[in-house]
Specification:
Elements (H helix, E strand, L loop, with lengths): L10 H20 L1 H4 L1 H8 L3 H27 L3 H21 L3 H29 L5 H9 L1 H15 L4 H22 L15 H6 L1 H27 L5 H17 L3 H8 L1 H21 L4 H29 L4 H29 L2 H15 L34
Helix pairs in contact: 1-5, 1-6, 1-7, 1-8, 1-9, 4-5, 4-6, 4-16, 5-6, 5-9, 6-7, 6-16, 7-15, 8-12, 11-14, 11-15, 11-16, 11-17, 12-15, 13-14, 13-15, 14-15, 14-17, 15-16, 16-17
Amino acid sequence: MPKRSLQRATGPQVVAAGLAVIAVTYGLARYGYGLYLPEFRTAFGLSAGTAGAVAAGGYAGYCAAALLAGRLVGGGHARATLWLAGGSAALGCLLVAVAWSAPVLAGGALVAGSGAGAATPALVAAVAATVPPAAETRAQGVVNSGTGAGVVAGGLLVLTLPGSWRWSWVGFAVVGVLVTWWADRTARWGSAAPASRGSTGARPLRRLGRPLVAAVLAGAGCAGVWTFGRDLMADQGGLPDRVTGLLWCVLGAAGLLGGGSGVLVARAGLRAAWTCSVAVAGAGTALLAAGPDSTVLAAVALACFGAAFVALSGVLLAWGADRDPAAAPAAAGVLFIGLTVGQALGAVLLGAVAGGGSAAAAFYAAAGLLVLSAGAAEPGTGSRRRRPPSTPSGASGRCPEAAERMV
């Protein structure tokens, strides 16, 4: 795609558009599988183990797309990466909508989930090129909270259109294309220089050992609620579809609060922010296991988990930027891949535990993994994000490393 720079582009515009892209690619195309799992299990006869394997496929697609997106962003093609994200999400949603068998459903979930993998690096680069440096950390956190908005939208669809999951996924595809176009029009796509030969994925990996371990463990723990949360409330808890749909809205709405992760990091430091986020997510997961048949307990549990999940992913963004300030998009990509690898492993493992024994036991195990991830927090008090020297380059006026490859 040809590059261009829109002089009318502003920070608030790109933040709103970026939030919408995250809402579709993450909240709907990626996590919509867990929302509609009860319907999918009924339509395709999925066991708990198979359901976990299908979810893992979507997470694997995310990782593959993130690797490709890193190379595209590193070569100065952030705009093309954005369209890769929106196009993949839309195509995958259409495949899910027309699925006539479990393998087709699995393929659709894989393609739909891959859109989120390309969305994060594209939007990190877009925000960095458009938003003033002083507001960038906060803007990245707000864009990241779009997951919650998408989850709310999905829950409302379950409430208003029960049983119409095929048409809902068609709608996801259409909205995905529209919000991608909006983000494309509002971002300032500068002439980012390709990454230098010396800028390889080895550099971020060397510096990201501790946060990468934390991301994998947290991802494995978070797979419990995202993949099996609504199914647990419907199957084990016996709650009706309208109630579980409303509770999913609570999960998403609470996720919007996680957009303040940038403020939390700035005031409390990385160590406290990470420990608090994963502890609250673990508590919410355990509480859901204890009371899946109670609307009140489930609402509190999902509110805790929703806010904490978005916060911990936002903390990972700040953590990566703190470890490698000159390659924030690259660091974000590595850590989000780690988070997703953890979710894939967790979906398979927890699905096996739920299928072979107790679903509640699987959720308690997930909570334990989240608490365990707190041990990987920074040994000190944590530092606030450092920013590399500002060296004007191209239309964006940023360092060329801002678009460095992710891997």
